[in-house]
Specification:
alpha+beta
Amino acid sequence: MTDTLMPYDDVLAAFDPALGLEVHVELNTASKMFCGCPAVFGGEPNSGTCPTCLGLPGAMPVVNGKAVESAIRIGLALNCDIAEWCRFARKNYFYPDMPKNFQTSQYDEPIAFDGWMDVEVDGETFRVEIERAHMEEDTGKSLHVGGSTGRIHGADYSLVDYNRAGIPLIEIVTRPIMGAGERAPDVARAYVAQLRELIVALGVSEARMDQGNLRADVNLSLAPKGTGTLGTRTETKNVNSFRSVERAVRYEMQRHAAILSGGGSILQETRHWHEDTGVTTSGRVKSDADDYRYFPEPDLVPVAPSREWVEELRGTLPENPTQKRARLQGEWGFSDLEMRDTVGAGAFGLVEETIAAGAAPQVARKWWLSELARRANDTGTDIASLGVTPADVVAVQRLIDAGSINDKLARQVFEGLYAGEGTPEQIVEARGLAIVSDDGALGAAVDKAIADNPDVADKIRDGKVAAAGALIGSVMKEMRGQADAGRVRELILEKLT
C-alpha cells in the first residue's frame, strides 16, 4: 500500500517537526566488546565466535579496555560529561540475531552524557544537544532467503551469522532537535555527516556507512505549529547514508502530516527505510524502556575511569571540526560558497585527504565536486562510497600534469576506477587512453584537417590565427581526444604561417 504524503510546503505551514537521532558507531578495536574474538568485517559466517559471544552457559564476559577508552574520547569530543562510575545492564528482548536473548548495553548510567555539537547548514548554526553516548554490543546479522524484499516477511527461510554479535558499539543519542523547521532534513544530514567526520578524526572507527560501521536511527514527530510540544514519534531504523537520512526525515514529515491532517493518529513504531523506492514501511510497535526489563549486568564490574585518565585522553582529541574547517578554508583559499558546497557534498574530508596527498586545493575540489559528485548524484551513492580514493585523484591529476592524459580523458579513467579496473596508470594503459604527441601521427591528422577545411586554412594563412581552433577541434575528433592540443596548434601554425 502506498502512503499518502502531504506536499512539503503544506507540512511546514501546519506543523513543527522535532528530530531525534540515534547513531550507532562500530569501534575498530581488534577484539569484540566482551570476548577475544576478532572484530572484523566479513569472513566466513560464524567463524569469529566463541562461547561468550554466542551466549553459551557458563561463559563469562570481560570488558574491552580499548573500547572504554574510545567511548570516553567520543564523549569528550562531543562536549559530554564523563561518568565517574557507570555500569552495564541487560536489555532483554528476543530476536534470532541475539544469541543471549539480551543485549549487554547501558541504561540509566551511561559513560558519557549532557553534551552538544554545533552543525552549520547554509551559514546557519544549529546546536544539537547530546543526551548520552553509551557502550553496548552489536547483534548478529540475519539473512532472509527467498521472497522479493530481502526481509523476513515472505522469505522461505532465514540464516544467522553471529560474527558481528559482540562487536563494540557506541550509541550516540540526541535530545529532541526542535526549531529547525524547513531545514530539519538538512540538519539531520549535516549532523550525521559532521559526526562521522569527527569519528574518523578520532580514529576510533572506520565509520563506513556502506559496511554498517556507522548507521543512524531517525526519530521524527510533528506537532501543531506554534505549540512547542512533542508529537508521537516514529523511528526509522538503520539508515546508512547521508542522503538517505535527509530523505527519510522528509518522507516521514510528509507521511505524518497527511495522517494527522486526515484526523488520524501516529503509531509509535519502528520503520524500515527502502533505499530503492525512497519510502518507509512499518516494522514493529516501538517498545518503551520498561518493556526491555533492564537490570544491572551481574557478570561485569562497574566502569570507573579516573579523572587523571580522562584528562589524559582529553589531550589526544583532534581539532574541533568547525574550527578546523575555518582554518583550512583560509589555507586553501576557498570562498564561503566553495567551502559550503564542499561540506554540503560530503566531500570535505576527501578534499582534505587529497590535498594532503599532494593535490592543489582547487584541483582537489574540482574533481570531487564535479566529476565525482556528479557520479554520486547519478547513482544515488554517497561520494565517499564510490570506490575512488584521494590517492586515485592525485594519481589522475599527475597523469594530466605529465601530459599523459587531458581532463576529458581523465573522465574515462574515473569510469575505470568506478568499475574497479585497477590503478589510474593501469586503466590508461589498458584502455589505450594516453595522449598522442608523436609528430608523425599528429602531422598526418593535421594534414587531413587542413585538406578537409580549406576555407579555415586560408583564414589562418591570411593571419587570422584564432581560426586554428576549428582545425584543432577536427584533429582532436580524428584522434578521439587523445592528441596533445598544444602540439597540434604548433604544427598547424608551422604548416600555414
